[in-house]
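Ticket 4471: requesting a sanity check on a complex prediction with adenosine monophosphate. Repro inputs:
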Amino acid sequence: MKIITTIAEMQEQMLRLKADGTTIGYVPTMGFLHEGHMTLMKKARHENDVVVLSIFVNPLQFGPTEDLDAYPRDFERDHKIAEAHGVDFIFYPSPEEMYPGTASITVSVVERTNVLCGKSRPGHFDGVATVLVKLFNIIQANRAYFGLKDAQQVAVVDGLIKDFNFPIQLIPVETIREEDGLAKSSRNVYLNDEERTQAPELHKSLQLAKAEIEKGERDPKQVIELVNTHINNHCNAEVDYIEIYSYPGLKELETLAGKIIIALAVRFSKARLIDNIILDVEKN
Ligand code: AMP
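Returned structure tokens:
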């Protein structure tokens, strides 16, 4: 496995591999790897000749009051995990390497971003899209693997790839969870003991919503109310949002039908956690 820190070397190696007809599977991450990331790596390993993992805590996608400096980092551990999962290249650039000066062009996401995390984290998806345009041009992947835990990100990347004609296949991967249902996240380390016991209730609230929809509920407001009540009754935390949209278009729905997402974000004392469920709803 090779660790590469410069854009020039990474791009040169990738262009050379591509010219030979080698297929490249790419897993973008911010590091502090857990089983969610490992599942993406395993899938990429299975489906491509070469696997590239990037580890870059992208300053552009953090707001001024967010956890950029505190974001957990452990390159030595990540290195071992990547090696054990058959990664061929780790791209590990510094912020100065990625953003050497003031940008003359940035990317602005205009659809699928005025809701959910896009609304509560202004500028976040512009930062995600900007770094991905750079990373896609550097890595030259055939397939890029993204987790559905960040379902809005998957929707935005879907738009980015289609609008800018990247010759990349987007591969969405199911959310990987702890045994008690909590979605794996690098940010789970911020939870204190009490919060850690409460956090699985987020997933439970989404399961309750699913059961209610399966029983015939089609009013999004009723479903949101159910989720909100469950979280407020079981978690000492503040609900940031609970919303329901079509997926991946992220359009509002008067009545639940077709492919939908129920997504939530909840603030515990030091961790803002997100989770979602994507369902196919039959007409009543
Ligand atoms: P991050 O390092 O948090 O930016 O995540 C890197 C990639 O891993 C993103 O595509 C995430 O959606 C994905 N990911 C993070 N957590 C999970 C999870 N629990 N299950 C599946 N994918 C995940």
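Notes from triage: The beta strands are 2-4, 24-29, 50-55, 89-91, 143-147, 169-173, 238-246, 258-267, 272-281. Leaving this open until the requester confirms.
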